[in-house]
Amino acid sequence: MAASRPDCLFCKIVTGEVPAEIVRKGERTVAFRDINPQAPTHILVIPREHYADAGEAARAGAGIVDDIARDSHEVAVAEGIADTGYRLVFNTGAGAGQTIFHVHGHLLGGRGLEWPPG
């Protein structure tokens, strides 16, 4: 784990170097709207520190995955989707569709979500 990586898009969003539509800034996370939304509400919740994926974040033992889940719920409440239901997805690895290698939870809601996904 590194505090940040100069070549990481999401690290640049955290520092404000790259603009994003921020919806929440927490002590350890930042939440912003996805630029290619897959649902009416599609927000990415990321840690301020750089972890490549959910596995690396979990292995670090710092509780960051807990923070992402808790802060995602707070965003869901603020967005008005907590009562109707939402999905929190972590794509881990290129084979699972991860394209930015900075762990991030996809908070999806605002419509019915099919199962299984994809």
TrEMBL record:
Which residue range or ranges hold the HIT domain? Answer: 9-118
Q: Name one Pfam family in it.
A: HIT
Q: Where is this motif: Histidine triad motif?
A: 102-106
Q: What is this protein called?
A: Histidine triad nucleotide-binding protein
Signal peptide as annotated in the record: none
Q: What domain of life? A: Bacteria
Q: Which organism is it from?
A: Nocardiopsis mangrovi
InterPro entries xrefs: Histidine_triad_HIT, HIT-like, HIT-like_sf
Spell out the PANTHER family in the cross-references. HISTIDINE TRIAD HIT PROTEIN
